[in-house]
Design brief:
Elements lengths: L2 E12 L2 E7 L2 E3 L3 E5 L6 H9 L6 E5 L10 E4 L11 H12 L5 H10 L15 H12 L6 E5 L7 H18 L2 E6 L2 H7 L2 E6 L2 E7 H8 L4 H16 L1
Parallel strand pairs: 4-8, 4-9, 6-7, 7-8
Antiparallel strand pairs: 1-2, 1-3, 1-5, 9-10
Length: about 240
Amino acid sequence: MEEVIITKNLTRRYFRKEVLKDVNISIRKGEIYGIVGNNGAGKSTLLKIICGLVKPTEGSVEFPETKENAPRVGTLIENPGLYFDMSAFDNIKAKALCMGVKYSSEDIEDLLSLVGLDDAEGKRVRAFSMGMKQRLGLALALVGEPDVLILDEPINGLDPQGINEIRKVLTEIHEKRGITMLISSHILDELVKVATRFCVLDRGKIIKECTKEEFVAECGERDIDEYYIELIESSRKRAF
């Protein structure tokens, strides 16, 4: 399977604090790659480096499939940038205009339908629930038909219903468009439900990388979160 993103020995330091240390991952075309880690593990920094928002102290990010040009990347980093006094339809229209992308009314309606907001296209975003705002953020990230979708904690702060909605939307986007996805989360149980392959990041280092099937098999009869904690504790013991 073709690799679309490769990180090589990514390291990021802020003054004396090392947030990432020699991170090496590869994202394959068409897969959903998950990054799981506790708060402060370095997930957001890693995604920002891949997006070009932060420069690494050492190491590099490569896009081997395109060679000369980086792939088109859609992002949802932290909170989506929304115009609260505009409708969902107009938010997408504004994003398309800013990007210089020609979107017809039908294109916008199709995008809203994809993220489950077709019944709310004329409603002001100010009245949206948090889950609806996140789904609109996903729609905005899809403007311009990106090759890769990078999502930082897309279910953070959502209630169970909102989490379920985002999970369904991500699955549908992947099935219908085949977009490569890179998703971070501190909730392993949810990430396992959508990711095809993932890594465990702790204190800026990759302590495990595997497919979902391999992880579930190794977990066995144990609770998945308990196994996750065991992995982190075992890694930290080896570090001393």
